[in-house]
């Protein structure tokens, strides 16, 4: 890394890599432990009886002065020799400690490099992975309880989720493009046919305009559904206390005009207080009921209930209709997924249940979907007991 303007010229900035930090840590730990060992050893040598010298005592007062002087001289020389030996021991031990600290730093550098080698391998492999090869994995070897292998496996799980998300996004874009292109092509064809007709009368032009207007309204519904799906997945909305029973009541009032007369509607609404976005939950219930209406045949029935089971608010929609294979239920919540058998009223774009799933996920709600008792679907959405916190 080049030196900055505040640093002296020709002086490079130290790169404090993980390997260097581990090396310094190993060296510092060895130095501290070696210094403590040296201090303890030195104190033991100093406090030993042999290092304190021999104390000369006289029990006979008649000993002459010459003997006392010789004894004092011997004691003085012994003390000097002992102190010199202690200094020599301390100096040589310090030199040995410095040499071993340097060696431990070198060994720490090698050990740190070996320990961090899997991290470098993961870094190199991760750099080569992009949106075009998300199917690749790190595939780190090692025992199952190894921390670095667990890190690699966690990263592989993240790549798998990203790969799935990218595939879903590509399919969504392709399906949305197809859904938007089809009405545009149909609208253009209708207009071109009218323009190629010689001397069209008012009735013909009116029919063409009505047809083009109907196609435009279908496009508006599709775009509105796409925007609702996007806003639900963004999870950016404000919440407020509400009751699922009130939400269902308001939606049923709006759908009364479009509800088929030959389909029985069974309603049982008990208080189910929670918290969330009123607009999004109204869309959730609208899509649930709309999906039930589309796939309920003449003479069938739809059952709508709200309740609070053990403090958990739920909304449930059950309808009769064609039998849906269990393995196909999960795919119904994917965008633009339609059943192979469709009733006369099934004119949607395959976004209804995917919007339901996105809104439920944004509200931390759980969806349970099973086959209905007489065909159709049995969908129960359970919301958190305390609702969700207000989002900015």
Can you offer a commentary on this structure?
It is a single chain. With 392 residues, this protein is α+β, with helices and mostly antiparallel strands. It is 57% helix and 11% strand. It has 8 helices and 7 strands; from the N terminus they run ααααβαββαββααββ. The longest helix has 64 residues, at 65-128. The chain is elongated, with a radius of gyration of 42 Å.
Query: What's the order of the H and E elements?
Result: HHHHEHEEHEEHHEE
Proportion of residues in extended strands: 5-15%
- What is the topology, as strand order, of the major beta sheet? 2-4-5-7-6
From the spread of the alpha carbons, the general shape counts as elongated
User: How many distinct beta strands?
Assistant: 7
| pLDDT < 50 runs, ≥5 residues | 1-6, 388-392
Helix content: 55-70%
Structural class: alpha+beta
Distance between the termini: 42 Å
Q: Would you tell me the overall average pLDDT?
A: 79
Largest sheet: 5 strands, mixed
- Total helical elements: 8
Cα-based radius of gyration, to the nearest Å: 42 Å
Question: What keyword list fits this structure?
Answer:
single chain, 392 residues, alpha+beta, five-stranded mixed β-sheet, two-stranded antiparallel sheet, 8 helices, 7 strands, 11% strand, elongated, disordered N terminus, disordered C terminus
């Amino acid at each position: 890394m080049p030196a900055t303007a505040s640093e002296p010229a020709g002086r490079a900035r130290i790169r404090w890599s993980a390997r260097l930090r581990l090396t310094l840590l190993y060296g510092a730990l060895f130095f501290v432990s070696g210094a403590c060992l040296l201090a303890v050893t030195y104190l033991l040598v100093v406090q030993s009886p042999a290092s304190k010298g021999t104390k000369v005592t006289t029990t006979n007062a008649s000993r002459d002065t010459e003997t006392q002087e010789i004894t004092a001289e011997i004691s003085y020389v012994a003390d000097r020799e002992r102190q010199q030996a202690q200094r020599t021991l301390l100096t040589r031990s310090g030199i040995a400690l410095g040499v071993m600290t340097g060696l431990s730093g070198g060994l720490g550098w090698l050990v740190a490099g070996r320990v961090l080698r899997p991290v470098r391998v993961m870094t190199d492999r991760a750099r080569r992975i992009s949106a075009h090869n998300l199917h690749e994995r790190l595939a780190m070897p090692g025992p199952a309880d190894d921390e670095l292998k667990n890190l690699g496996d966690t990263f592989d799980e993240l790549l798998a989720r990203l790969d799935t998300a990218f595939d879903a996004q590509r399919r969504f874009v392709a399906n949305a493009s197809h859904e938007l292109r089809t009405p545009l092509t149909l609208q253009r064809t209708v207009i071109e046919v009218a323009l190629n007709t010689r001397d069209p009368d008012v009735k013909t032009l009116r029919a063409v305009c009505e047809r083009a207007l109907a196609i435009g309204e279908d496009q508006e519904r599709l775009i509105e559904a796409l925007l609702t799906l996007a806003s639900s997945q963004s999870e950016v909305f404000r919440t407020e206390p509400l009751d699922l029973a009130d939400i269902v009541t308001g939606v049923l009032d709006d759908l009364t005009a479009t509800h088929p007369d030959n389909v029985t509607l069974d309603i049982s609404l008990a208080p189910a207080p929670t918290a969330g976005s009123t607009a999004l939950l109204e869309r959730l219930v609208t899509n649930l009921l709309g999906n039930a209406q589309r796939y309920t045949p003449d003479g069938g029935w739809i059952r709508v209930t709200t309740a609070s089971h053990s403090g958990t608010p739920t909304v449930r929609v059950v309808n009769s209709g064609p039998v849906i294979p269990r393995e196909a239920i999960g795919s119904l919540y994917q965008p633009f997924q339609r059943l192979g058998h469709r009733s006369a009223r099934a004119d949607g774009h395959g976004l209804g249940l995917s919007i339901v799933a996105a809104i439920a996920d944004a509200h931390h709600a759980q969806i349970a979907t099973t086959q209905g008792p007489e065909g159709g679907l049995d969908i129960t959405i359970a919301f958190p007991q305390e609702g969700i916190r207000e989002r900015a």
